[in-house]
């Protein structure tokens, strides 16, 4: 055993370095906690905090419930049953992730508005005047709908993979004991997939908590609003950072508590080839019920908004300059590609360290990387700019030795943006990789090392091949997320660096949702393609 | 700590190597154009890009752009400090230029051409920023339910008779903040607060959506009057969506406070960043943008009012008539911005 821990040292050091470098840009934000209260603090406390926190809580809570219900039920239907199009839906249900929530928010409110397709059809074709109350989506329930529809794939993806690969024996036993499908779902499926569901839903909650695009347009005041009103409206960035820091502390506490509570209840299988869940072919009304339900969700979360976007695309065709689009596509691909590869590589290292780590610190440390995902992007952007300018100053003599006349080199290059993505989305990739490690357990690796292979050799020869599925789904999630990322890309890009997301935002932010359809559709198409390709790879893995 | 730095550096170099293709091409672009000017802008209109391209064509000076949100760009400039590559900060709202000046990130620029093309009231008194276009924040009304005679001032919309009939977007929006800031400057804090309170009482619904959505809500019968920017109305009248055009056609435009303090105007403009490395080019760009040709383009393509008095507004805007503007110094909009936000919060204007 002593020998094992000796080998682990290199991994430990590397992992600690990775985690610390991800956390280092957050230092100024954490420092913000200690900053003295500004004169605005009383005002913020009295008029903003209480109400805004309540709204944030409502949004997070109902979205969490919604995504759990939809994500888990879809995962179960797809994993266990066969019905029309179920093979298509298996991957198509990930597609809603490709639509940026703020674009979805604009699209839905556009469709539901007085000039939208629904009301104009009723008015012009059927001559039916309608009560506007029923068509107003720009409110808290509307925002919950948008978040639920466009974020549930986080829960769906993770839970479905888990159920497909892990649930068979337990479900079989339950069946033998004579339990019906509903009882199995509630008594077996939900409890055993708890960890997977929590993993997915915590990403959803964080995304809701730090979102600003949807709530800003819908006029809903959340904790993010408080941060930005303090910064933009009151011009008090220190107080804004302090608010963000409190949010971050809260999130980290929740996660650590969750991890500590769950830490001891891990189970690993000695065999990765657990029998896959045998599919049950549905018949009769059950068949059409399942099909109808899944189709309804797919339409609401993907097909309808996409058709609307295509309609706008056609209406505005030729109205906006589109000769630069290949450049935007290339830029989007470039930054998303590099960042996702780096994130997954880092996650593999940290994850490998984590599973052998003795003690709670080792188990909990990687969880801290989630701070990058827990606060609004614009606040992270400030932290990243600060770090890079500091870095550039430190490297100043190096630059002049190279004969560069500029003092800002890294911070005016695309490197700053890519690092920002890594800091922000590391948790997404890590989440996927960690659950992959959880799944394969430690037995194979221990066996390999018992037979004399080093940790590093084991990592490449045993762990990576076993982790292929997790690697692919991690890459996919991170890539799709970066394609649609907005505040970081806007603030941290170098001169003349446009991506599809910045273009989409520029039009949407100026209330030109019709013009925004063009870049949005390209984002959706490219992400859909990525999802499809990754899915095919994943499927091959499953089939092995 | 050293190790950590080393790792970050290695990581950075690795990334730099990986991303060579893009950064190199950007550098190449710079080297082909010997002259350049660097712009941080929160205006992101296609018409701006067209004008920049034209400028490059005429002068050989390349315009490099980072477009983002104004406060975030301002923060980036602040943190970059003296080393910043930005020459100009171009914003859609003058309050932000004032804030930039207060933060000490701007410096003066002297140019007789600018002084001639841009009237004094649209410039900073120390010539640190220059207004380039303006939009009026007007009252639009449902032609069927409201007669223009019923309308008079912004203040009147806060009175009893408009209970449940007024539409306006959320207070988070900078145009609303500037509007209230102007009232604070003109009437004092107390009256401004009373106005905001009265408005909240008269709301037809909780504020939601953007300016265009307020116009649609009038068409839908949710309210009878709305406060919105002329710029957005111009976009709607000329929309690609025939339904939006129909909505816009049923709206009347009313310039409030003509007998009293004048209609509120937002100015969009650019400030000279302190230590600008391409200051001369930046001045040339400002001169170009405030000259008749570019001002005409702003007017025709973007429905903004030109600041250059030699240039007429777009025909559509002219059809709404001439109007008297508020006469306060524009810097007051910046001074009173945070007060305005506090008032909004106090009266519960979402």
TrEMBL record, chain B:
It comes from the Bacteria. PROSITE patterns: PROKAR_LIPOPROTEIN. It holds the Pfam family SBP_bac_8. GO terms for cellular component: outer membrane-bounded periplasmic space. The keyword Ion transport applies. This is Fe(3+) ABC transporter substrate-binding protein. GO terms for biological process: iron ion transport. Keywords: Ion transport, Iron, Iron transport, Metal-binding, Signal, Transport. Fe cation binds at residues 44, 231-232. Belongs to the bacterial solute-binding protein 1 family. CDD domains: PBP2_FutA1_ilke.
């Amino acid at each position: 055993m002593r020998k094992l821990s000796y080998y682990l040292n290199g991994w430990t050091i590397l992992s600690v370095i990775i985690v610390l470098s991800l956390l280092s840009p957050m230092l100024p934000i954490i420092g913000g906690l200690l900053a003295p209260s500004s004169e605005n603090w009383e005002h913020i406390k009295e008029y903003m905090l209480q109400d805004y926190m309540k709204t944030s809580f409502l949004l997070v809570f109902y979205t969490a419930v919604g995504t759990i219900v939809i994500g888990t039920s879809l995962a179960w239907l797809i994993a266990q049953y066969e019905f029309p199009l179920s093979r298509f839906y298996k991957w198509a249900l990930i597609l809603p992730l490709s639509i940026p929530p703020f674009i979805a928010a604009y699209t839905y409110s556009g469709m539901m508005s007085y000039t939208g397709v629904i009301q104009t059809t009723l008015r012009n074709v059927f001559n039916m005047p309608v009560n506007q109350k029923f068509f107003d989506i720009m409110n808290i329930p509307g925002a919950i709908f948008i978040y639920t529809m466009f974020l549930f794939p986080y829960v769906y993806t993770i839970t479905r993979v888990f159920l497909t690969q892990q649930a068979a024996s337990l479900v079989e036993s339950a069946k033998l004991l004579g339990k019906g499908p509903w009882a199995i779902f509630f008594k077996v499926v939900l409890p055993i997939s708890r960890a997977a569901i929590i993993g997915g839903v915590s990403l959803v909650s964080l995304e809701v908590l730090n979102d600003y695009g949807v709530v800003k347009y819908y006029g809903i005041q959340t904790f993010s609003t408080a941060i930005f009103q303090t910064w933009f409206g009151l011009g008090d960035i220190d107080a804004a950072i302090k608010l963000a820091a409190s949010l971050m502390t809260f999130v980290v506490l929740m996660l650590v508590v969750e991890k500590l509570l769950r830490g001891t209840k891990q189970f690993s299988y000695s065999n990765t080839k657990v029998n896959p869940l045998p599919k049950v072919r549905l018949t009769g009304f059950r068949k059409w019920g399942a099909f109808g339900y899944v189709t309804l969700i797919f339409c609401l979360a993907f097909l309808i908004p996409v058709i609307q976007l295509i309609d706008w695309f056609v209406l505005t065709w030729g109205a906006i300059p589109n000769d630069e689009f290949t450049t935007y596509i290339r830029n989007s691909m470039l930054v998303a590609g590099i960042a996702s590869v780096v994130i997954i590589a880092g996650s593999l290292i940290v994850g490998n360290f984590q599973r052998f780590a003795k003690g709670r610190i080792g188990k909990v440390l990687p969880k801290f990387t989630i701070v990058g995902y827990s606060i609004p992007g614009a606040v992270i952007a400030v932290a990243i700019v600060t770090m890079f300018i500091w870095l550039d100053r430190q490297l100043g003599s190096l630059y002049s030795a190279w004969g560069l006349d500029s003092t800002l080199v890294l911070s005016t290059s695309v490197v700053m943006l890519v690092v920002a993505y890594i800091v922000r989305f590391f948790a997404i990739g890590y989440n996927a990789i960690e659950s992959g490690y959880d799944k394969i357990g430690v037995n194979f690796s221990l066996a390999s090392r018992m037979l004399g292979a080093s940790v590093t050799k084991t990592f490449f020869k045993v762990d990576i091949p076993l982790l292929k599925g997790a690697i692919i789904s991690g890459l996919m999630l991170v890539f799709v997320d970066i394609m649609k990322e907005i505040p970081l890309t806007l603030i941290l890009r170098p001169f003349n660096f446009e991506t599809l997301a910045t273009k989409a935002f520029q039009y949407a932010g100026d209330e030109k949702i019709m013009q925004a359809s063009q870049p949005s559709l390209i984002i959706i198409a490219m992400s859909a393609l990525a999802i499809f390709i990754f899915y095919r790879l994943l499927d091959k893995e499953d089939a092995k | 700590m050293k190790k950590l730095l080393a790792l970050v550096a290695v990581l950075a170099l690795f990334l730099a190597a990986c991303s060579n293709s893009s950064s190199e091409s950007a550098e190449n672009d710079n080297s082909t154009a010997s002259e350049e000017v660097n712009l941080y802008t929160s205006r992101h209109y296609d018409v701006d890009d067209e004008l920049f391209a034209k400028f490059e064509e005429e002068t050989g000076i390349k315009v490099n752009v980072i477009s983002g949100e104004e406060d975030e760009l301002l923060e980036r400039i602040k943190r970059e400090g003296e080393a910043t590559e930005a020459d100009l900060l171009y914003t859609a709202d003058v309050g932000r230029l004032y804030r930039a000046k207060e933060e000490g990130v701007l410096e003066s620029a002297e140019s007789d051409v600018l002084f001639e093309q841009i009237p004094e009231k649209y410039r900073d008194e120390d010539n640190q920023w220059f207004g380039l276009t303006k939009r009026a924040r007007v009252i639009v009304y449902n032609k069927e339910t409201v007669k223009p005679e019923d309308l008079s001032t912004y203040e009147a919309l806060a009175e009893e008779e408009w209970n449940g009939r007024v539409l306006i977007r959320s207070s988070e929006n900078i145009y609303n903040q500037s509007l209230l800031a102007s009232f604070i400057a003109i009437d004092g804090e107390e009256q401004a607060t009373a106005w905001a309170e009265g408005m909240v009482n008269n709301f037809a619904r909780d504020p939601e959506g953007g300016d265009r959505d307020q116009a649609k809500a009038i068409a839908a019968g949710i309210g009878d009057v709305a406060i919105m920017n002329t710029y957005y109305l111009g976009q709607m009248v000329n929309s690609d969506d025939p339904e939006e055009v129909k909505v816009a056609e049923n709206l009347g435009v009313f310039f409030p406070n003509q007998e009293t303090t004048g209609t509120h105007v937002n100015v969009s403009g650019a400030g000279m960043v302190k230590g600008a490395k391409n200051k001369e080019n930046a001045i040339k760009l400002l001169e170009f943008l405030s000259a008749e040709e570019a001002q005409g383009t702003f007017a025709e393509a973007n429905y903004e009012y030109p600041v250059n008095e030699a240039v007429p507004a777009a025909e559509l805007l002219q059809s709404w008539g001439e109007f008297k503007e508020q006469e306060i110094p524009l810097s007051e909009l910046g001074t009173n911005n945070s007060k305005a936000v506090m008032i909004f919060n106090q009266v519960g204007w979402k």
